[in-house]
Amino acid sequence: MRLLLLTLPLALLPFAPAHANEHAHEHDHDEHASLDAHEHGSASLNIALEGNSLELELDSPAMNLLGFEHAAHSTADRAKLASVKRLLEQPQQLFTLPAAANCQITSSELHSPLFEDEHADEQHNDVEAHYQFSCANPQALDSLSLAAFFQQFAGMEKLQVQLISTTGQSGKTLTASDSLLPL
Hints:
globular; alpha+beta; DUF2796 domain-containing protein; 23% helix; 6-stranded mixed beta sheet; ZrgA-like; 8 strands
């Protein structure tokens, strides 16, 4: 399944020009930006659904989640970092799946130089999270709500979602006011 998520950006590459044209006039400085650009307020979420396995892969500038993206120097920064890390370690609090699907988290991985006492960049650090769920009743997986995610992270303006499943692939931009993703 991890391989499926890694190939997702390549599979959805044909959608990139249409998406780029859709937002070409939003920010003049983003005219030449790629899908992997470090853009505050925006993050990507790749989703793969196969059989009873659901994987989510989040990639976000730390600014969206923490309110800063430099190494945590102050007590307040370290407290915020610990709080966000604890929250990200509980994906059930951020991503709401239909109860009837009976999905349980089976693995969770977080990566950021900020979390790992690595030499963090003083200007632009990202946070990556990878979650795997096992769903006892995958037929009931008809949606994913990110309302709680947007409530927790006020710095998140939009989430570029790419979904691949046995029925095909799709992409959608979610916001706090449009946070329900049909699966």
